[in-house]
Hints:
The chain is an alpha+beta fold. The chain has helices spanning about 5-20, 20-30, 55-75, 115-125, 135-145, 185-200, 240-255, 265-270, and strands at about 35, 50-55, 90-95, 105, 150, 160-165, 175-180, 220, 230-235, 280. The strands form four sheets. A three-stranded antiparallel sheet has the order 3-2-4. It has a three-stranded antiparallel sheet with strand order 8-7-9. Strands 1-5 form a two-stranded antiparallel sheet. Helix 1 packs across helix 2 (about 20-30) and helix 4 (about 115-125) runs antiparallel to helix 8 (about 265-270). Bound molecules: zinc ion (2 copies). One zinc ion binds near residues 165, 168, 170, 220 and 224.
Amino acid sequence: MTADRARKQAARKLKAVTGEPYNSARRRTQHPKLTAICDTCSAPVADGDGILWIPKADLARAEPALQAFKQQQTQRFVALSDYPELARWRVDHHACADLDGAAYAIELHRCRNWPNLINWTAHLMGKAWLSSTDWHRLLKDAVNAAGHRLNPTHHLAIPELTITCGTCHQPVRDREGALWVESSTLYNARTGQQEFERKRMANESVSIWDYPDSAEWRVDHYACTDFEHSYYTVDVHRCRTWRSLADWTAHLMIKGWPDHTDWDTLLSATSENTGKRITPVTKPRLTP
Ligand SMILES: [Zn+2]
Ligand SMILES: [Zn+2]
């Protein structure tokens, strides 16, 4: 289905559901906005009126606590109930935000639709401190319309993403293939990175060149791949929309996998037409 036909179909569906004029429905099918709810006053936040932010003081508390927990985890059994509290991302009106100290802030209009939010996720995955925040919960809550922070206005049941086989370079239709990562590669990347961290913490000399490669996510038709080894797969029909991609991202973040795989690269490439792995049916215009 071409992008244009997909949009027309989605617009007709939306018109039928909401009763709004076709043209306005069509405009909205492009990349439906997310609504933002202020954490302080619980009112919606209009574009230009607020931020998604995290106080640096909260990061400064959460980061060492998580590091210490992970350190202990490598040495002895630690209860998951001892998992340190993560720093929480907040949504606030400019007027409501209690910006006392330094903060990491994103203007809300820059993360107001799924492609933008995915793009920010990929960008933030490059920051070592992201795992000490609750970004995965922010994504999950947005996916599930939890009613606070970010929420989808409606869900379009049209495919927004094209998935291409890395072997035969043809599109992969639903249930014909998967995104996958080999278990042993993932294991090697994780243990290699842990060993690197251990040496660094022990002040042994380490070169940045010794940092192990991340495990690569591959995309293939089931028929094109020789699944000889153990691997982890995500069927392509479960990542056809930006929203489901955000859902998977949150899921993988809970497992800590994006740290050991190239999921961030895969995500950031979804807003470009690289022709590889996951690409958009219609190229999103990202808010700079
Ligand atoms: Zn407010
Ligand atoms: Zn193939």
